[in-house]
Amino acid sequence: MHLRRDRLIFVAGMKDVIIIGAGPIGLACGIEAQQKGLDYLILEKGVLVNSIYHYPRNMTFFSTSEHLEIGNVPFISHQSKPTRAEALEYYRRVCQHFDLNVRLYEGVEKAEKEQDHFCIRTSKETYRTQNLVIASGFYDRPYLLNVPGEELPKVRHYYDEPHPYFNMDLVVIGSANSAVDVALETYRKGAKSVTMIIREPEIGKNVKYWARPDIVNRIEEGSIQAYFNSEITEIRQDSIDFLTPDGPKSISNDFVLAMTGYQPHFQMLEDLAVETQADGFKTPQYNPATMESNTSGVYLAGVVCGGLKTNKWFIENSRVHAPMIIDHILTQKV
C-alpha cells in the first residue's frame, strides 16, 4: 500500500485540523482524526518520524515495543526493547496501513490566526484550517554553544555512529544520556582520546541506570578524561579552549560533539500567541484535560508540552494526547 498520488495535489478549502509534525504523536493524532471522520492533514518538514530517523543508527529504545505502539497496530520487535531500525519500519507500516494524509518535506514557514481560522504557509503551499495541532517535537533545534568557532565543520550537534571518529581526539560536551552514550561508544570503537567538558559538577543524575556507573568508572580509571564545572570558550581548527575551576586550558582536538540538548519551536508558539509560563522551562500554557492552549483552536501534543523540560514527555506517556485533542475538536465542531 502506498500514499495516494491524488493527495499530492492541493485542493482549496478549509481543513478540520492540520497537524504539524509526523512523529509518532503527530501520526497518532492523524489516525484519531481519520477514525473520527475529520478532514485532516499532517505536515512534516523532513522524513516520516524525522527525529527517530536522526537518532544514532544502532540506538535501542529505553521503552519496550508495546509502549511505542499507536493506532492499536502491534509493534513486534526481536527484543523487548526495539532498535531505531525496527521503529522506522513500524511507523512506516502504520502510515501505510492507515493511508495517512501526510505531506513530507513540506516545512511550515508561517502559522498565524486569521479571524476564525488559521493560515498555514509551507515551503510548497498555503492551507487553512479550523484547528491546529502542534506536535513538532524539538530534535531539530539544538542548543548552541554561542562561542567563537562553533561554525567550524569539526563541531557536530548530532551523532550518528562511531566509525568517523576512529583514531581521532574527541571532545564531548554535556553530561546527560546522549553525551554519555557518545563518550562510551566512541571510546570503545577506537577514538584516540575522549574528553568530556561538563558545566555541572557531576554526571547527570537522570542518566540511564546501566550507563551511569559505566561512565563514572571510565572517568575514574582515566580511560575518559572529564572536566567538571567547565565551559568552552573558543573552538579552533585543531584545538579547543575551555575554562576550568583551576583556570583556562587548551587541548588538541579533531572533533567536538556538542550533545547539549534541543528545544521546541518557540517562534511558532509565539506567532500563534501561545503563552509560556515563567517557570524557567518556558512551559506552554494548555488545558491538561483537552490539550488546548490559551489560543483557542491551537492544541499541543507530545514533547512540546514540556517546553525546555524535554525529558518530561515521551511517546509512551503522550500517546493519550491524540484522543483528548480530537474528542475536544469534535465537541467544538458544528
Structure, explained:
With 334 residues, this protein is α/β, with parallel strands linked by helices. It has two domains: 5-141 and 262-332, FAD/NAD(P)-binding domain (3-Layer(bba) Sandwich); 155-258, 3-Layer(bba) Sandwich (FAD/NAD(P)-binding domain), CATH 3.50.50. 22% of the residues lie in helices and 22% in strands. The protein contains eight helices and 15 strands. It has helices at 24-35, 50-53, 84-98, 177-188, 212-221, 266-271, 315-318, 321-332, and strands spanning 14-20, 40-43, 102-103, 108-114, 117-122, 126-134, 155-156, 169-173, 193-197, 225-227, 231-235, 239-244, 247-252, 255-258, 298-300.
| CATH homologous superfamily heading of the largest domain | FAD/NAD(P)-binding domain
What is the count of DSSP helices, taking H or I runs of 4+ residues? 8
CATH architecture annotation name of the largest domain: 3-Layer(bba) Sandwich
Computed CA radius of gyration, to the nearest angstrom: 22 Å
Give the fraction of residues assigned to helices: 10-25%
Give average pLDDT, whole number.
90
Content-based structural category: alpha/beta
What is the element string, with H for helices and E for strands? EHEHHEEEEEEHEHEEEEEHEHH
- What is the β-strand count? 15
Largest sheet: number of strands, sense, barrel closure: 7 strands, mixed
Q: Which CATH class of the largest domain is shown? A: Alpha Beta
**What is the fold named in CATH at topology level of the largest domain?**
FAD/NAD(P)-binding domain
Bin the strand percentage: 15-25%
List unreliable stretches of 5+ residues: 1-12
Q: Globular, elongated, flat, extended or rod-shaped: what is the shape?
A: globular
Number of domains: 2
Distance between the termini: 34 Å
